[in-house]
Design a protein that fits this description.
The protein has a single domain, classed as MFS general substrate transporter like domains (Growth Hormone, Chain: A, Up-down Bundle). The protein is about 75% helix and about 0% strand. It has 18 helices and no strands.
């Protein structure tokens, strides 16, 4: 496909030399490039945010969906579980293609598929149909993880951390504000309207990417099979990748256990709150996400390992406070829950940014695959957290959920160790 990137286009970045063949591995596949325009960075951040938000629209709606489809708390827990598993599977099978093919084409194709999956969820007539649509949303929402390596490729080395951090801020805001938007839209216009609006948003992002996103040079000629086979090789080669994957995966267990059961907890006694209230806690999480990019600056000055240890400790402390809050009056418990949500979201997101700063520096020719390993570990953890959180909540209540999240956060701290 011919390039849309013209010399007079202010968003154009000259990434692809016009030649028919590329070397198998290219440490510096892109020439030294000028800083991309702010409008292009904004497009990447918005695309990442809207794409990843698709994974979380259903979480504040679990109480509403369970009532509409006649499902119990355990069955409702399958919605986030399938979404997270679909995302992990999509990252594993699809994200490595970004090293082999023009990432622009991948972004355009996934935009169409994600839009169709969201429409299928909004039109689902039974719980089984909604579960299948949730799996498809997870698979195609991996679009978000094509925008982040795109930012790393577009950015010159001296400003890569800041530009990737900006796109990650968009992604994190998408994760957290999705719950706020979903809860409010469902409260006033119904849950089906939320999925229709989400599909429209992805369609707009796809059109914008078609118009303004430049082409990207592949960094390898490995076959698809060889790309997949290289993932365990990368994991075996890089100790820091293994540590990052395990620590972030453990943090993700608690993160998902919390968000997968929060709506069910607030829906029941003594709160009896609707989807809008559950979604509003996303505002507290968004406050933490906005502060998280500061972790990148601290990591530059003091090293990412320190940031990760502090972040894991903050997450553990926050979940511990939530558990103590279960013994307090409902109003006080809600206030403490909001404060702790800021704390643990800040911890989880700061840790992710610090881990990505480590991972992206390991091999510039394999960024998509390195990112795939890290993100797969996260979403395997999230799927496990959704299952475990739903089972613990149904059997022993909210205190068990917060206890699990605190323990996995402490385990992440142990993985990083007290040194290094």
């Amino acid at each position: 496909m011919t390039s849309i990137c013209k010399a007079h286009d202010p968003l154009a970045v000259p990434l692809v030399p016009e030649r028919p063949e590329l070397p198998e591995r290219l440490e510096a596949a892109q020439p030294e490039i000028r800083k991309p325009a702010r409008s292009l960075i904004f497009l990447l951040a918005t695309g990442a945010g809207l794409s990843v938000a698709s994974l979380y629209y259903s979480q504040p709606l679990l109480g509403v969906l369970a009532t509409e489809f006649g499902a119990g708390a355990r069955e409702a827990g399958f919605v986030p579980t399938l979404t997270q598993l679909g995302y992990a599977l999509g990252i594993l099978l699809l994200a490595p293609l970004g090293d082999r093919h023009d990432r622009r084409q991948i972004i355009l194709g996934k935009s169409v598929l994600l839009m169709l999956a969201l429409l299928a969820a909004g039109l689902a007539g039974d719980f089984g149909g909604f579960l299948l649509a949730s799996l498809a949303i997870g698979l195609t929402a991996t679009l978000a993880q094509d925008f982040v390596p795109a930012a790393a490729s577009l950015a010159p080395e001296q400003s890569r951390g800041r530009i990737v951090g900006t796109v990650m801020t968009g992604l994190l805001m998408g994760i957290l504000l999705s719950r706020v938007v979903s809860g409010l839209v469902a409260e006033y216009w119904g849950w089906r309207a939320m999925f229709a609006a989400a599909a429209a948003g992805i369609a707009l992002i796809g059109l914008a990417a078609w118009r303004w996103l430049p082409r990207f040079a592949p960094t390898t000629q490995l076959s698809y099979r060889a790309l997949l086979a290289s993932l365990p090789a990368l994991l075996g080669r890089h100790r820091e990748l293994r540590r990052a994957a395990l620590a972030q995966g453990l943090l993700s267990v608690g993160f998902s256990a919390f968000w997968s059961t929060l709506a069910l907890m607030l829906h029941g006694a003594p709160f009896h709150l609707g989807s809008a209230a559950a979604g509003a806690f996303g505002l507290a999480g968004a406050a933490g996400a906005l502060a998280a990019p500061m972790a990148g600056h601290l990591a530059d000055r003091r090293g990412p390992a320190l940031v990760i240890r502090l972040a894991s400790g903050l997450a553990a402390l926050s979940f511990g406070l939530m558990g103590l809050g279960t013994q307090l009056p409902p109003t006080v418990q809600l206030v403490l829950l909001g404060i702790a949500t800021v704390g643990f979201d800040l911890g989880v997101q700061a840790s992710l940014i610090a881990h990505q700063s480590i991972v992206y520096g390991l091999d510039s020719g394999a960024r998509s695959r390195l990112n795939a390993v890290l993100v797969v570990s996260m979403f395997v953890g999230m799927a496990a957290g959704a299952v475990a959180g739903s089972l613990l909540f149904a059997q022993w209540g909210w205190l068990a959920v917060t206890g699990l999240a605190m323990l996995t956060s402490l385990a992440a701290l142990a993985v990083r160790g007290l040194r290094g």
